[in-house]
Design brief:
The protein has 616 residues and is of the alpha/beta class. It folds into 5 domains: 1-65 and 166-226, Rossmann fold (3-Layer(aba) Sandwich), CATH 3.40.50.300; 72-164, no CATH class; 233-282; 311-506, P-loop containing nucleotide triphosphate hydrolases (Rossmann fold, 3-Layer(aba) Sandwich); 540-614. The protein contains 21 helices and 18 strands. The strands form 4 sheets. It has a 6-stranded mixed β-sheet with strand order 5-6-7-3-8-9, with helices on both faces. Strand 15 (449-453), helix 16 (461-473) and strand 16 form a beta-alpha-beta unit. It is flat and about 100 Å long.
């Protein structure tokens, strides 16, 4: 489907790719991995033709379609539903042809192609995509301009998925999604009929969605079959083999050099020594194995002693101007407690963390923090509070007066901020570098409690692994909000669900939570406390709506079959030779009536879908 042939590319004088050859076949779902800055996003731009390789070719098989997620934040008054449907450009072009009154051969060809693309179900499919990505029923009719940047990126993702392309390029598709939407997208991609190249720093997402890994390393690319965990195992074995081969060759080289050194001057051994010397010259040297530049070893320490409990919430409540968010929250954090917060987007997870951190004040109830307790709080908005003109070293010196520069530089280096990065202004930093600095500042203070709100955003896989290991060995209390399930599994001991204005213990693990989310999407019902973590109980109203949908779908199927029969008759030349004009007129009129009936059925079906979403 796609072939990269001996491709090299230079950026700002540095070689980003060197003689890379790579093929993507039908049905492959490939995870593209490598440290930050290795060229993953650049490779996408090369495939899309936005930039050209300096050497080599990138060839997409003729007739194959390519889709990707636009990074531009589009501002339009079109509804979210219209915006997503328009993502399928071919359907749009066919609809223009089908609106023509002249039913010539081009019109009938367009009609058949429209049918093969499931054009009549386009609205329903677009609504399902939006629902899966977290849009509630009434939101899909709102203008795109009403949504924030993060939600517009979700719309861009839905628009790309709507195309059903032969090859889909996804660059960090989970960045703006909560765990519910990620699990839905994971299932969707796993069943995607085309090929996919996917960039992601989410280990579990890669494990569930890809069947191959392309690893960019040292300007080259290696391919591994399997998911990310299988790639890691295979790569470690490959590195071990290379290490053993390097060691064996070094022994061989040492033996040959020693022989030449000892016998070169002796006449009886001169020819043998010369032969060994030529063997050394012919030897293809194996390079020593190098560790990835992205390897980090973090350490986050807690004080040796801490009070117990550390903090306590009693009947805590909080409201925004548009209504109540949290009500009667009771939660106690003891030394060593490790809580992961679950819940739908907007339910109040980040608000709860802000309350615990003292960033906002409760509207009711009380929050008691033990005397002397240091709270380390990380959130994405803190990155905006970093001083752009200051260096990492200057930021750390605020918290570490009296410490030697060498100590501070060594500490920053453990967070990947050593070398020239220590003296660069933060304004020039990437999102990942800013996140590492914020974590370093937090770690230096040795907090009793860590409150972490999406700490892995902008972090690559290597840094996520390092953070996971650091949090596993941290002895203080942790409250974690994260859509990175690998981090949640490794770090937390108990899960709490934030929903329906309450915070309550979730009796299950992340797999139970995923099954509950899947069942909720399947039944299109909102969550209920009585159903956690089990499937929701059906209600008569829901059964009636579903029954009507089934009947409509059956009617639609009959109409589609009749429409196909009419089109076959109208496309048959014998119809025009053996049939009088009145019959042809009747067929055309019946066809127009079927199209109108199908459009009406689709509208009613979509209204029923929205009603199912509104059920309480």
């Amino acid at each position: 489907m796609l072939e990269i042939q001996n491709m090299s590319f230079f950026r700002a004088g540095a070689q980003l790719f060197s003689s890379v050859s790579f093929k993507v076949f039908d049905g492959q779902r490939i995870g593209l991995v490598g440290r930050n800055g290795c060229g993953k996003s650049t490779l996408f731009r090369l495939i899309l033709g936005e930039i050209n390789p300096d050497i080599g070719e990138i060839v997409l098989q003729p007739g194959k379609t390519l889709a990707y997620v636009e990074q531009e934040i589009i501002n339009t008054k079109k509804s979210a539903l219209e915006f997503v449907i328009e993502g399928n450009q071919e359907l749009n072009e066919l609809e223009v042809i089908l609106q023509c009154k002249n039913h010539d051969s081009a019109w009938f060809d367009a009609q058949q192609r429209y049918e093969s693309l499931d054009g009549y179900s386009a609205k329903a499919r677009a609504a399902q995509l939006l629902n899966g990505l977290g849009f509630v029923a009434d939101e899909i009719f709102r203008p795109v301009s009403d949504f924030s940047g993060g939600w517009r990126m979700r719309l861009n993702l839905a628009r790309a998925l709507m195309q059903r392309a032969d090859l889909l390029l996804l660059d960090e598709p989970t960045n703006h999604l909560d765990m519910e939407a990620i699990i839905w997208l994971e299932n969707y991609i796993s069943n995607y009929p085309g090929s996919i190249i996917l960039v992601s720093h989410d280990r579990e997402f890669l494990n569930a969605t890809v069947n191959g890994i392309a690893h960019i390393y040292n300007a080259g690319m290696d391919f591994y079959a399997g998911n990310y965990d299988q790639f890691e195992s295979a790569r470690i074995e490959r590195l071990n083999q290379k290490t053993r081969a390097f060691s064996a060759q070094q022994e061989q080289i040492s033996h040959l050099e020693d022989f030449v050194r000892r016998f070169r001057a002796k006449a009886t051994k001169a020819r043998q020594a010369q032969s060994r010397l030529k063997a050394l010259e012919r030897l293809s040297r194996i390079a020593p194995v190098q560790m990835d530049e992205g390897y980090f070893q973090l350490k986050i320490s807690a004080p040796e002693r801490s009070p117990d409990p550390l903090l306590n919430c009693e009947q805590l409540g909080f409201s925004y101007d548009d209504g109540r968010l949290l009500d009667r929250v009771n939660l106690t954090l003891r030394s060593g407690t490790r809580i992961g917060l679950l819940g739908p987007n907007g339910a109040g997870k980040s608000t709860l963390v802000k309350l615990l951190a003292g960033e906002i004040l409760p509207a009711s109830g009380k929050l008691e923090v033990a005397t002397g307790v240091r709270i380390g709080y990380f959130s994405q908005h803190q990155l905006e509070n970093l001083i752009g003109s200051a260096t990492p070293l200057e930021h750390l010196q605020v918290f570490a007066a009296g410490e030697t520069t060498l100590t501070l530089r060594s500490f920053l280096g453990s967070f990947g901020l050593g070398g020239d990065n220590e003296d660069r202004p933060v304004a020039s930093f990437s999102g990942g570098e800013k996140s590492r600095l914020a974590l370093a500042l937090l770690a230096w203070q040795k907090p009793h409690v860590l409150l972490l709100d999406e700490p892995t955003n902008h972090l690559d896989l290597e840094m996520r692994d390092a953070l996971t290991l650091a949090l596993e060995t941290y002895s203080g209390a942790v409250v974690l909000v994260s859509h990175d399930r690998s981090l949640m599994r490794a770090v937390t001991h108990e899960l709490w669900l934030v929903s329906d204005h309450s915070v309550r213990y979730f009796d299950g693990d992340l797999d139970d939570y995923a099954r509950w989310i899947e069942s909720r999407h399947a039944l299109k019902l909102p969550q209920s406390q009585d159903s956690l973590p089990h499937v929701h109980r059906s209600k008569p109203r829901k059964k009636a709506l579903l029954s009507r949908q089934v009947k409509l779908e059956a009617d639609l199927l009959l109409l589609q079959r009749e429409l196909k029969a009419i089109d076959e008759a109208l496309s048959d030349p014998e119809t025009y030779s053996d049939t009088d004009s009145q019959v042809l007129i009747s067929l055309a009129e019946r066809r127009a009536g079927i199209e109108a009936d199908m459009a009406e059925i689709e509208e009613v079906w979509l209204e029923l879908e929205m009603s199912l979403d509104d059920l309480v």
